[in-house]
Amino acid sequence: MTENTPKALVQVNQKPLIEYQIEFLKEKGINDIIIVGYLKEQFDYLKEKYGVRLVFNDKYADYNNFYSLYLVKEELANRYVIDADNYLFKNMFRNDLTRSTYFSVYREDCTNEWFLVY
């Protein structure tokens, strides 16, 4: 699936996952949204539809999401960092951030993958 179509563009209820996140951010008045990753051309429509900025990770095959974050390292202060392949069914964002925020979930049943414990 993700070789040709990014997980962020998988549809849930006829809408790509990433669009839920963008709409929730905009509901909170957060309009400076940067989308970073690979297969940029599939995300191009979001520039016109939502006014987001796109940053292409041309080294995704070698460095994955770590390089995506590196490309926007100067932009990370007081930001949400969100994996766009997560389904958000309610708006959990705040418009009064005083520091950067990253969403994560602890999983006990999966031990062969890297994950963040906060």
TrEMBL record:
PANTHER family: NUCLEOTIDYL TRANSFERASE, PROTEIN LICC. InterPro entries: GlmU-like (IPR050065), MobA-like_NTP_Trfase (IPR025877), Nucleotide-diphossugar_trans (IPR029044). It comes from Streptococcus mitis. Transmembrane segments: none annotated. Keywords: Nucleotidyltransferase, Transferase. The keyword Transmembrane helix does not apply. GO terms for molecular function: nucleotidyltransferase activity. Residues 5-75 form the MobA-like NTP transferase domain. This is MobA-like NTP transferase domain-containing protein.
